[in-house]
Amino acid sequence: MRMRPTLSWTPAEDWPPGTTDVEPVGEVLRAGGVLVLSGAGISTESGIPDYRGEGGSLSRHTPMTYQDFTASVQARRRYWARSHLGWRTFGRARPNAGHRAVAAFGRHGLLAGVITQNVDGLHQAAGSEGVVELHGSLERVVCLSCGAFSARRDLARRLEAANPGFDPVASGINPDGDADLTDTQVGDFEVLPCTVCGGVLKPDVVFFGEAVPPQRVEHCRTLVREAASLLVLGSSLTVMSGLRFVRQAAQAGTPVLIVNRDATRGDRHALTRIGLPLGTALTAVAGRLGICVDGPSVVSDTPS
Known about the structure:
Largest sheet: 6 strands, parallel
Radius of gyration: 19 Å
Strand content: 5-15%
């Protein structure tokens, strides 16, 4: 029997509640060398829901797994139809105050780096540089046969041409860009092959049940080893891909701080968890540091 990936986690009742005091975050930023690890919660204020928070998409939606995607033609049709529709929504999303604050901290030399579990590109759009995309990016597509990479916007244009009139109304959008559609709405959506070899195309993102590339993991581990502190922003840390870096930092004695409205799987390793919305908390921290969060943003290509 095939095991499903870990999608949920229940916090222990005796874990301390989050605080509203943002000063500890200000203290580590003043010292510099802060490594940011961000999750879906930092993008909710941009209109992209998270998986596990209040109203999170896991309450209504089970993400596509790598095993299902590679094993079933119908699963790929369902995924690409829903993802094609969701891609339009992602194209309208813009960085919020949380993304802008992280970019501002970077411009002021306070960060050792940014690792994001998100695939939306909003950190880069806000102006952050050298972002490590732990789970990849929706802006790229990879062929599972020949390994060729291509731009998602190019595939979007091909899909538009192959599926004229495809414009169903989704009941929701998810952090992986997968819109909620019924099988009837998906219909006979045409899935397109690789233009190089005719193979199966997949977004260059790590699906549930798929491993993060080892070299990417090792690069992140190096960043954790070299950081003065680890600041987790908007992640429940339910899956091991992010939790392992929190554990690594804690085991090395590196301070871990978390900003997340709900309890996380990493709370036991953290000095504190600030239970505030990301935009509110990080804007307040920036204000205490005398940093303006409304710096220049990078305008990326709008998906089409």
